[in-house]
Amino acid sequence: MPPDLNLRISPRSVQRETVDKLRLAIFSGLFQPGSRLIESQLCTQLGISRPSLREALRSLEAERLIEIVPNRGPSIPALSWEVATAIYEVRELLEVEAAGRCASRISPEQLRELEKSLSAFEAAASSNDSLARVMTAADFYSIILANCGNPILEEVHRGLVARISFFRGRSMSLEGRAQSSLSEMREIFESIAAGDEKAAREASKQHVLKAKAAAKISMDSGL
Amino acid sequence: MPPDLNLRISPRSVQRETVDKLRLAIFSGLFQPGSRLIESQLCTQLGISRPSLREALRSLEAERLIEIVPNRGPSIPALSWEVATAIYEVRELLEVEAAGRCASRISPEQLRELEKSLSAFEAAASSNDSLARVMTAADFYSIILANCGNPILEEVHRGLVARISFFRGRSMSLEGRAQSSLSEMREIFESIAAGDEKAAREASKQHVLKAKAAAKISMDSGL
DNA sequence: ATTGCAAGAATGTCAGACAATCGGCTTGAC
DNA sequence: GTCAAGCCGATTGTCTGACATTCTTGCAAT
Protein backbone atom coordinates (compact mmCIF):
# COMPACT_ATOMS: atom_id res chain seq x y z
CA MET A 1 0.00 0.00 0.00
CA PRO A 2 1.38 3.42 -0.88
CA PRO A 3 2.30 5.17 2.34
CA ASP A 4 0.87 8.51 1.26
CA LEU A 5 -2.59 7.18 0.53
CA ASN A 6 -4.96 8.96 2.82
CA LEU A 7 -7.45 6.50 4.18
CA ARG A 8 -9.03 8.92 6.58
CA ILE A 9 -12.67 9.43 5.85
CA SER A 10 -13.53 13.05 6.22
CA PRO A 11 -16.72 13.71 8.14
CA ARG A 12 -18.85 16.40 6.60
CA SER A 13 -19.06 19.22 9.07
CA VAL A 14 -21.68 21.93 8.92
CA GLN A 15 -18.98 24.46 8.17
CA ARG A 16 -17.70 22.55 5.15
CA GLU A 17 -21.15 21.84 3.78
CA THR A 18 -21.88 25.53 4.06
CA VAL A 19 -18.71 26.54 2.23
CA ASP A 20 -19.53 24.13 -0.58
CA LYS A 21 -23.11 25.28 -0.85
CA LEU A 22 -22.22 28.95 -0.88
CA ARG A 23 -19.41 28.39 -3.35
CA LEU A 24 -21.79 26.63 -5.69
CA ALA A 25 -24.35 29.38 -5.22
CA ILE A 26 -21.77 31.96 -6.20
CA PHE A 27 -20.67 29.95 -9.24
CA SER A 28 -24.19 29.61 -10.51
CA GLY A 29 -24.64 33.35 -10.24
CA LEU A 30 -27.28 33.29 -7.53
CA PHE A 31 -25.84 36.46 -6.02
CA GLN A 32 -25.34 39.61 -8.05
CA PRO A 33 -21.84 41.08 -8.00
CA GLY A 34 -21.73 43.88 -5.50
CA SER A 35 -24.70 42.63 -3.55
CA ARG A 36 -24.38 42.22 0.17
CA LEU A 37 -24.87 38.98 2.02
CA ILE A 38 -26.85 39.34 5.24
CA GLU A 39 -25.74 36.93 7.94
CA SER A 40 -29.13 36.52 9.53
CA GLN A 41 -30.78 35.81 6.18
CA LEU A 42 -28.19 33.23 5.20
CA CYS A 43 -28.51 31.58 8.60
CA THR A 44 -32.23 31.02 8.20
CA GLN A 45 -31.91 30.00 4.57
CA LEU A 46 -29.18 27.50 5.34
CA GLY A 47 -30.63 26.48 8.66
CA ILE A 48 -27.41 26.96 10.59
CA SER A 49 -26.16 29.12 13.42
CA ARG A 50 -24.27 32.35 13.06
CA PRO A 51 -20.90 31.11 14.31
CA SER A 52 -20.90 28.30 11.74
CA LEU A 53 -21.90 30.66 8.98
CA ARG A 54 -19.26 33.17 9.92
CA GLU A 55 -16.58 30.50 9.83
CA ALA A 56 -17.71 29.53 6.36
CA LEU A 57 -17.65 33.16 5.27
CA ARG A 58 -14.07 33.54 6.48
CA SER A 59 -13.06 30.59 4.34
CA LEU A 60 -14.71 32.08 1.29
CA GLU A 61 -13.13 35.43 2.04
CA ALA A 62 -9.67 33.86 2.05
CA GLU A 63 -10.52 32.26 -1.31
CA ARG A 64 -11.40 35.75 -2.55
CA LEU A 65 -14.88 34.57 -3.50
CA ILE A 66 -16.44 37.12 -1.19
CA GLU A 67 -15.26 40.32 0.41
CA ILE A 68 -15.75 41.17 4.04
CA VAL A 69 -15.48 44.84 4.91
CA PRO A 70 -15.28 45.40 8.66
CA ASN A 71 -18.57 46.62 10.10
CA ARG A 72 -20.24 46.25 6.73
CA GLY A 73 -20.17 42.53 6.34
CA PRO A 74 -19.73 40.18 3.41
CA SER A 75 -20.53 40.95 -0.21
CA ILE A 76 -19.88 39.59 -3.68
CA PRO A 77 -16.94 41.51 -5.12
CA ALA A 78 -17.57 43.28 -8.40
CA LEU A 79 -14.79 42.01 -10.62
CA SER A 80 -13.20 44.87 -12.53
CA TRP A 81 -11.90 44.22 -16.00
CA GLU A 82 -8.47 45.19 -14.81
CA VAL A 83 -8.42 42.40 -12.24
CA ALA A 84 -10.05 39.98 -14.65
CA THR A 85 -7.28 40.67 -17.14
CA ALA A 86 -4.69 40.01 -14.48
CA ILE A 87 -6.36 36.71 -13.66
CA TYR A 88 -6.45 35.68 -17.31
CA GLU A 89 -2.77 36.48 -17.64
CA VAL A 90 -1.78 34.34 -14.69
CA ARG A 91 -4.15 31.65 -15.84
CA GLU A 92 -2.33 31.67 -19.16
CA LEU A 93 0.98 31.24 -17.39
CA LEU A 94 -0.28 28.28 -15.40
CA GLU A 95 -2.31 26.55 -18.09
CA VAL A 96 0.42 26.78 -20.68
CA GLU A 97 2.86 25.21 -18.27
CA ALA A 98 0.39 22.53 -17.26
CA ALA A 99 -0.50 21.60 -20.83
CA GLY A 100 3.16 21.37 -21.73
CA ARG A 101 3.99 19.11 -18.82
CA CYS A 102 0.87 17.09 -19.37
CA ALA A 103 1.87 16.33 -22.95
CA SER A 104 4.98 14.52 -21.87
CA ARG A 105 3.68 12.67 -18.84
CA ILE A 106 -0.01 11.86 -19.02
CA SER A 107 -0.94 8.20 -18.70
CA PRO A 108 -2.97 6.38 -21.38
CA GLU A 109 -6.01 5.98 -19.18
CA GLN A 110 -5.98 9.62 -18.15
CA LEU A 111 -5.69 10.49 -21.80
CA ARG A 112 -8.85 8.53 -22.41
CA GLU A 113 -10.52 10.44 -19.61
CA LEU A 114 -9.45 13.64 -21.26
CA GLU A 115 -10.95 12.50 -24.53
CA LYS A 116 -14.18 11.60 -22.78
CA SER A 117 -14.42 15.02 -21.17
CA LEU A 118 -13.83 16.60 -24.56
CA SER A 119 -16.75 14.61 -25.94
CA ALA A 120 -18.87 15.72 -23.02
CA PHE A 121 -18.06 19.31 -23.79
CA GLU A 122 -18.81 18.73 -27.44
CA ALA A 123 -22.28 17.55 -26.48
CA ALA A 124 -22.79 20.48 -24.14
CA ALA A 125 -21.55 22.94 -26.76
CA SER A 126 -24.44 22.01 -29.03
CA SER A 127 -26.98 22.30 -26.26
CA ASN A 128 -28.45 25.41 -24.73
CA ASP A 129 -27.38 24.64 -21.19
CA SER A 130 -24.63 27.20 -20.59
CA LEU A 131 -24.01 25.90 -17.07
CA ALA A 132 -23.31 22.46 -18.53
CA ARG A 133 -20.84 24.01 -20.95
CA VAL A 134 -18.94 25.69 -18.17
CA MET A 135 -18.95 22.53 -16.09
CA THR A 136 -17.75 20.19 -18.82
CA ALA A 137 -15.13 22.67 -19.93
CA ALA A 138 -13.94 22.91 -16.35
CA ASP A 139 -13.66 19.12 -16.25
CA PHE A 140 -11.41 19.21 -19.29
CA TYR A 141 -8.99 21.65 -17.66
CA SER A 142 -9.15 19.79 -14.38
CA ILE A 143 -7.86 16.65 -15.99
CA ILE A 144 -5.00 18.52 -17.60
CA LEU A 145 -4.09 20.26 -14.40
CA ALA A 146 -4.38 17.05 -12.41
CA ASN A 147 -1.90 15.36 -14.72
CA CYS A 148 0.73 18.04 -15.00
CA GLY A 149 2.62 16.53 -12.08
CA ASN A 150 2.40 19.60 -9.89
CA PRO A 151 -0.40 19.69 -7.32
CA ILE A 152 0.29 23.34 -6.48
CA LEU A 153 -0.17 24.38 -10.08
CA GLU A 154 -3.52 22.65 -9.96
CA GLU A 155 -4.52 24.24 -6.69
CA VAL A 156 -3.62 27.77 -7.69
CA HIS A 157 -5.33 27.36 -11.03
CA ARG A 158 -8.52 26.18 -9.40
CA GLY A 159 -8.54 29.20 -7.13
CA LEU A 160 -8.13 31.59 -10.01
CA VAL A 161 -10.68 29.98 -12.29
CA ALA A 162 -13.21 30.08 -9.48
CA ARG A 163 -12.94 33.84 -9.39
CA ILE A 164 -13.73 34.28 -13.06
CA SER A 165 -16.58 31.79 -13.12
CA PHE A 166 -18.85 34.76 -13.59
CA PHE A 167 -17.26 35.56 -16.96
CA ARG A 168 -17.07 31.98 -18.05
CA GLY A 169 -20.80 31.57 -17.80
CA ARG A 170 -21.46 34.72 -19.78
CA SER A 171 -18.89 34.24 -22.52
CA MET A 172 -19.94 30.64 -23.04
CA SER A 173 -23.36 31.99 -23.95
CA LEU A 174 -21.84 34.14 -26.65
CA GLU A 175 -22.80 33.32 -30.20
CA GLY A 176 -20.30 30.86 -31.60
CA ARG A 177 -17.97 30.98 -28.62
CA ALA A 178 -18.72 27.41 -27.54
CA GLN A 179 -17.93 26.06 -30.99
CA SER A 180 -14.64 27.88 -31.38
CA SER A 181 -13.79 26.95 -27.83
CA LEU A 182 -14.39 23.36 -28.79
CA SER A 183 -11.99 23.49 -31.69
CA GLU A 184 -9.35 25.14 -29.54
CA MET A 185 -9.74 22.47 -26.90
CA ARG A 186 -9.57 19.76 -29.53
CA GLU A 187 -6.28 21.22 -30.65
CA ILE A 188 -4.97 21.09 -27.10
CA PHE A 189 -6.10 17.52 -26.78
CA GLU A 190 -4.49 16.46 -30.06
CA SER A 191 -1.20 18.04 -29.07
CA ILE A 192 -1.21 16.30 -25.71
CA ALA A 193 -2.21 12.99 -27.26
CA ALA A 194 0.69 13.34 -29.70
CA GLY A 195 3.02 14.10 -26.81
CA ASP A 196 3.98 17.35 -28.50
CA GLU A 197 4.87 19.61 -25.63
CA LYS A 198 5.55 22.69 -27.69
CA ALA A 199 2.30 22.42 -29.61
CA ALA A 200 0.35 21.86 -26.42
CA ARG A 201 1.81 25.02 -24.97
CA GLU A 202 0.96 27.05 -28.03
CA ALA A 203 -2.56 25.68 -28.34
CA SER A 204 -3.17 26.30 -24.68
CA LYS A 205 -1.93 29.85 -24.95
CA GLN A 206 -4.18 30.60 -27.89
CA HIS A 207 -7.13 29.13 -26.04
CA VAL A 208 -6.70 31.35 -23.00
CA LEU A 209 -6.16 34.43 -25.14
CA LYS A 210 -9.37 33.79 -27.01
CA ALA A 211 -11.26 33.07 -23.83
CA LYS A 212 -10.05 36.38 -22.50
CA ALA A 213 -11.15 38.18 -25.66
CA ALA A 214 -14.56 36.53 -25.45
CA ALA A 215 -14.85 37.57 -21.82
CA LYS A 216 -14.07 41.15 -22.75
CA ILE A 217 -16.73 41.14 -25.43
CA SER A 218 -19.32 39.72 -23.08
CA MET A 219 -18.41 42.31 -20.49
CA ASP A 220 -18.53 45.28 -22.84
CA SER A 221 -21.85 44.21 -24.29
CA GLY A 222 -23.45 43.01 -21.08
CA LEU A 223 -22.66 45.93 -18.84
CA MET B 1 -7.40 62.19 -7.06
CA PRO B 2 -7.40 58.74 -8.61
CA PRO B 3 -10.90 57.33 -8.36
CA ASP B 4 -9.73 53.83 -7.44
CA LEU B 5 -7.75 54.96 -4.44
CA ASN B 6 -9.24 53.31 -1.44
CA LEU B 7 -9.51 55.85 1.31
CA ARG B 8 -11.42 53.59 3.62
CA ILE B 9 -9.53 53.06 6.81
CA SER B 10 -9.95 49.48 7.84
CA PRO B 11 -10.80 49.05 11.48
CA ARG B 12 -8.70 46.40 13.12
CA SER B 13 -11.04 43.67 14.22
CA VAL B 14 -10.10 41.01 16.71
CA GLN B 15 -10.33 38.41 13.99
CA ARG B 16 -7.87 40.19 11.72
CA GLU B 17 -5.45 40.92 14.50
CA THR B 18 -5.54 37.28 15.38
CA VAL B 19 -4.89 36.13 11.84
CA ASP B 20 -1.92 38.46 11.59
CA LYS B 21 -0.50 37.40 14.92
CA LEU B 22 -0.84 33.72 14.18
CA ARG B 23 0.56 34.13 10.70
CA LEU B 24 3.58 35.86 12.12
CA ALA B 25 3.94 33.18 14.77
CA ILE B 26 3.93 30.53 12.09
CA PHE B 27 6.47 32.41 9.98
CA SER B 28 8.85 32.77 12.86
CA GLY B 29 8.67 29.06 13.50
CA LEU B 30 7.00 29.24 16.88
CA PHE B 31 5.03 26.09 16.12
CA GLN B 32 6.69 22.88 15.06
CA PRO B 33 5.44 21.35 11.82
CA GLY B 34 2.99 18.61 12.62
CA SER B 35 2.18 20.02 16.04
CA ARG B 36 -1.43 20.53 16.95
CA LEU B 37 -2.95 23.84 17.96
CA ILE B 38 -5.32 23.64 20.89
CA GLU B 39 -8.17 26.11 20.69
CA SER B 40 -8.53 26.64 24.41
CA GLN B 41 -4.80 27.25 24.82
CA LEU B 42 -4.68 29.75 21.97
CA CYS B 43 -7.73 31.51 23.36
CA THR B 44 -6.09 32.14 26.71
CA GLN B 45 -2.74 33.04 25.15
CA LEU B 46 -4.32 35.52 22.77
CA GLY B 47 -6.94 36.68 25.21
CA ILE B 48 -9.84 36.19 22.84
CA SER B 49 -12.97 34.09 22.67
CA ARG B 50 -13.35 30.80 20.88
CA PRO B 51 -15.62 32.03 18.06
CA SER B 52 -13.15 34.75 17.11
CA LEU B 53 -10.27 32.32 17.21
CA ARG B 54 -12.10 29.78 15.10
CA GLU B 55 -12.84 32.38 12.45
CA ALA B 56 -9.17 33.26 12.34
CA LEU B 57 -8.24 29.60 12.04
CA ARG B 58 -10.59 29.17 9.08
CA SER B 59 -8.86 32.04 7.32
CA LEU B 60 -5.46 30.49 7.91
CA GLU B 61 -6.77 27.14 6.76
CA ALA B 62 -7.89 28.64 3.47
CA GLU B 63 -4.41 30.14 3.11
CA ARG B 64 -3.01 26.64 3.64
CA LEU B 65 -0.95 27.85 6.56
CA ILE B 66 -2.67 25.41 8.88
CA GLU B 67 -4.65 22.24 8.38
CA ILE B 68 -7.95 21.54 10.08
CA VAL B 69 -8.96 17.90 10.22
CA PRO B 70 -12.59 17.47 11.30
CA ASN B 71 -12.86 16.38 14.93
CA ARG B 72 -9.11 16.65 15.34
CA GLY B 73 -8.67 20.35 15.06
CA PRO B 74 -5.98 22.58 13.61
CA SER B 75 -2.33 21.71 13.18
CA ILE B 76 0.74 22.95 11.37
CA PRO B 77 1.09 20.91 8.18
CA ALA B 78 4.34 19.04 7.73
CA LEU B 79 5.56 20.21 4.35
CA SER B 80 6.78 17.27 2.28
CA TRP B 81 9.66 17.80 -0.07
CA GLU B 82 7.40 16.81 -2.92
CA VAL B 83 5.01 19.66 -2.21
CA ALA B 84 7.86 22.04 -1.50
CA THR B 85 9.30 21.21 -4.92
CA ALA B 86 5.96 21.91 -6.52
CA ILE B 87 5.79 25.27 -4.77
CA TYR B 88 9.29 26.21 -5.87
CA GLU B 89 8.40 25.31 -9.44
CA VAL B 90 5.33 27.53 -9.49
CA ARG B 91 7.24 30.22 -7.69
CA GLU B 92 9.78 30.09 -10.49
CA LEU B 93 7.04 30.55 -13.07
CA LEU B 94 5.64 33.55 -11.28
CA GLU B 95 8.88 35.23 -10.28
CA VAL B 96 10.44 34.89 -13.69
CA GLU B 97 7.40 36.48 -15.27
CA ALA B 98 7.29 39.22 -12.66
CA ALA B 99 10.97 40.07 -12.99
CA GLY B 100 10.64 40.22 -16.76
CA ARG B 101 7.68 42.54 -16.65
CA CYS B 102 9.23 44.60 -13.93
CA ALA B 103 12.32 45.26 -16.03
CA SER B 104 10.32 47.05 -18.67
CA ARG B 105 7.92 49.00 -16.52
CA ILE B 106 9.30 49.85 -13.10
CA SER B 107 9.37 53.54 -12.21
CA PRO B 108 12.58 55.30 -11.17
CA GLU B 109 11.48 55.83 -7.59
CA GLN B 110 10.42 52.21 -7.20
CA LEU B 111 13.78 51.24 -8.62
CA ARG B 112 15.40 53.23 -5.87
CA GLU B 113 13.23 51.43 -3.36
CA LEU B 114 14.40 48.16 -4.82
CA GLU B 115 18.00 49.24 -4.46
CA LYS B 116 17.39 50.22 -0.86
CA SER B 117 15.89 46.86 -0.06
CA LEU B 118 18.87 45.19 -1.67
CA SER B 119 21.15 47.18 0.62
CA ALA B 120 19.04 46.19 3.58
CA PHE B 121 19.44 42.55 2.65
CA GLU B 122 23.17 43.06 2.20
CA ALA B 123 23.37 44.31 5.76
CA ALA B 124 21.25 41.45 7.05
CA ALA B 125 23.29 38.91 5.10
CA SER B 126 26.39 39.82 7.10
CA SER B 127 24.56 39.63 10.40
CA ASN B 128 23.50 36.59 12.37
CA ASP B 129 19.83 37.41 12.44
CA SER B 130 18.34 34.85 10.07
CA LEU B 131 14.83 36.21 10.57
CA ALA B 132 16.06 39.60 9.37
CA ARG B 133 17.57 37.96 6.31
CA VAL B 134 14.29 36.33 5.41
CA MET B 135 12.36 39.53 6.02
CA THR B 136 14.63 41.79 3.97
CA ALA B 137 14.81 39.25 1.17
CA ALA B 138 11.02 39.09 1.20
CA ASP B 139 10.90 42.88 0.88
CA PHE B 140 13.06 42.67 -2.22
CA TYR B 141 10.72 40.22 -3.93
CA SER B 142 7.69 42.18 -2.78
CA ILE B 143 8.85 45.25 -4.59
CA ILE B 144 9.44 43.30 -7.77
CA LEU B 145 6.06 41.63 -7.56
CA ALA B 146 4.33 44.90 -6.72
CA ASN B 147 5.76 46.49 -9.86
CA CYS B 148 5.11 43.75 -12.37
CA GLY B 149 1.78 45.32 -13.23
CA ASN B 150 -0.28 42.31 -12.28
CA PRO B 151 -1.82 42.33 -8.79
CA ILE B 152 -2.89 38.71 -9.08
CA LEU B 153 0.64 37.57 -9.78
CA GLU B 154 1.64 39.35 -6.61
CA GLU B 155 -1.16 37.88 -4.56
CA VAL B 156 -0.57 34.30 -5.64
CA HIS B 157 3.15 34.65 -5.11
CA ARG B 158 2.68 35.94 -1.60
CA GLY B 159 0.47 33.00 -0.77
CA LEU B 160 3.03 30.50 -2.03
CA VAL B 161 6.03 32.09 -0.40
CA ALA B 162 4.19 32.11 2.91
CA ARG B 163 3.95 28.36 2.78
CA ILE B 164 7.66 27.81 2.35
CA SER B 165 8.69 30.36 4.96
CA PHE B 166 9.81 27.40 7.02
CA PHE B 167 12.45 26.47 4.45
CA ARG B 168 13.48 30.02 3.83
CA GLY B 169 14.45 30.49 7.45
CA ARG B 170 16.48 27.30 7.50
CA SER B 171 18.27 27.68 4.19
CA MET B 172 19.15 31.30 4.94
CA SER B 173 21.08 29.98 7.92
CA LEU B 174 23.11 27.73 5.66
CA GLU B 175 26.81 28.47 5.41
CA GLY B 176 27.35 30.87 2.54
CA ARG B 177 23.79 30.81 1.29
CA ALA B 178 23.06 34.38 2.26
CA GLN B 179 26.11 35.63 0.37
CA SER B 180 25.38 33.74 -2.82
CA SER B 181 21.77 34.76 -2.50
CA LEU B 182 22.93 38.33 -2.33
CA SER B 183 24.92 38.11 -5.54
CA GLU B 184 22.00 36.47 -7.32
CA MET B 185 19.69 39.21 -6.16
CA ARG B 186 22.15 41.83 -7.23
CA GLU B 187 22.14 40.30 -10.67
CA ILE B 188 18.37 40.50 -10.77
CA PHE B 189 18.50 44.10 -9.68
CA GLU B 190 21.09 45.04 -12.27
CA SER B 191 19.06 43.43 -15.04
CA ILE B 192 15.92 45.26 -14.00
CA ALA B 193 17.78 48.54 -13.62
CA ALA B 194 19.14 48.08 -17.14
CA GLY B 195 15.64 47.36 -18.40
CA ASP B 196 16.88 44.06 -19.77
CA GLU B 197 13.81 41.85 -19.64
CA LYS B 198 15.51 38.71 -20.88
CA ALA B 199 18.38 38.99 -18.44
CA ALA B 200 15.99 39.66 -15.57
CA ARG B 201 14.08 36.51 -16.41
CA GLU B 202 17.20 34.43 -16.56
CA ALA B 203 18.66 35.85 -13.35
CA SER B 204 15.38 35.32 -11.58
CA LYS B 205 15.18 31.75 -12.76
CA GLN B 206 18.66 30.96 -11.56
CA HIS B 207 17.90 32.51 -8.20
CA VAL B 208 14.84 30.37 -7.59
CA LEU B 209 16.62 27.24 -8.72
CA LYS B 210 19.44 27.88 -6.29
CA ALA B 211 17.06 28.72 -3.50
CA LYS B 212 15.36 25.42 -4.14
CA ALA B 213 18.65 23.56 -4.07
CA ALA B 214 19.59 25.26 -0.81
CA ALA B 215 16.23 24.34 0.66
CA LYS B 216 16.79 20.72 -0.28
CA ILE B 217 20.20 20.68 1.37
CA SER B 218 18.84 22.20 4.54
CA MET B 219 16.03 19.69 4.57
CA ASP B 220 18.24 16.66 4.01
CA SER B 221 20.70 17.74 6.65
CA GLY B 222 18.20 19.02 9.15
CA LEU B 223 15.79 16.12 9.22
C1' DA C 1 1.75 -8.06 22.74
C1' DT C 2 -2.78 -7.02 21.36
C1' DT C 3 -7.51 -5.98 22.40
C1' DG C 4 -11.15 -3.65 24.76
C1' DC C 5 -12.89 -0.27 27.65
C1' DA C 6 -13.43 3.90 30.38
C1' DA C 7 -12.18 8.56 31.75
C1' DG C 8 -10.67 12.87 30.24
C1' DA C 9 -9.76 16.26 26.78
C1' DA C 10 -10.89 18.71 22.64
C1' DT C 11 -13.82 19.85 18.98
C1' DG C 12 -18.42 20.96 16.50
C1' DT C 13 -22.38 23.40 17.07
C1' DC C 14 -25.82 26.09 18.95
C1' DA C 15 -28.54 29.92 21.55
C1' DG C 16 -28.61 34.24 23.36
C1' DA C 17 -26.90 38.59 24.49
C1' DC C 18 -24.95 43.32 24.01
C1' DA C 19 -22.08 47.12 22.30
C1' DA C 20 -20.36 49.44 18.18
C1' DT C 21 -21.16 50.82 13.73
C1' DC C 22 -23.43 51.83 9.41
C1' DG C 23 -27.10 53.58 6.35
C1' DG C 24 -31.14 55.93 5.65
C1' DC C 25 -34.70 58.97 7.09
C1' DT C 26 -36.54 62.73 9.34
C1' DT C 27 -36.12 67.17 10.90
C1' DG C 28 -34.73 71.70 10.98
C1' DA C 29 -32.22 75.82 9.38
C1' DC C 30 -30.98 78.86 5.78
C1' DG D 1 -35.80 73.83 -2.11
C1' DT D 2 -31.41 72.33 -0.66
C1' DC D 3 -28.29 71.02 2.58
C1' DA D 4 -26.67 69.75 7.20
C1' DA D 5 -27.40 67.54 11.59
C1' DG D 6 -29.07 64.12 14.24
C1' DC D 7 -31.79 60.14 15.37
C1' DC D 8 -33.22 55.15 14.70
C1' DG D 9 -33.44 50.63 12.88
C1' DA D 10 -30.60 47.11 10.86
C1' DT D 11 -26.39 44.66 10.88
C1' DT D 12 -22.10 43.24 12.37
C1' DG D 13 -18.32 42.15 16.00
C1' DT D 14 -17.64 39.79 20.02
C1' DC D 15 -18.37 37.27 24.15
C1' DT D 16 -20.29 33.75 27.45
C1' DG D 17 -21.96 29.46 28.35
C1' DA D 18 -23.59 25.18 27.21
C1' DC D 19 -23.89 20.37 25.41
C1' DA D 20 -23.32 16.37 22.28
C1' DT D 21 -19.87 14.00 19.65
C1' DT D 22 -15.47 12.45 18.82
C1' DC D 23 -10.76 11.63 19.72
C1' DT D 24 -6.91 10.26 22.75
C1' DT D 25 -4.79 8.06 26.39
C1' DG D 26 -4.00 5.00 30.04
C1' DC D 27 -5.18 0.75 32.15
C1' DA D 28 -6.93 -3.68 32.62
C1' DA D 29 -7.79 -8.22 30.66
C1' DT D 30 -6.95 -11.96 27.57
TrEMBL record, chains A, B:
Domain HTH gntR-type residues, every copy? 12-79
Q: Name one Pfam family in it.
A: GntR
MF (Gene Ontology): DNA binding; DNA-binding transcription factor activity
Sections of the chain in a coiled coil? none
What superkingdom heads the lineage?
Bacteria
Question: Is Ion transport one of the keywords?
Answer: no
Keywords in alphabetical order: DNA-binding, Transcription, Transcription regulation
Return the SMART domains for the record: FCD (SM00895), HTH_GNTR (SM00345)
The keyword DNA-binding is assigned to this record: yes
Record protein name field? GntR family transcriptional regulator
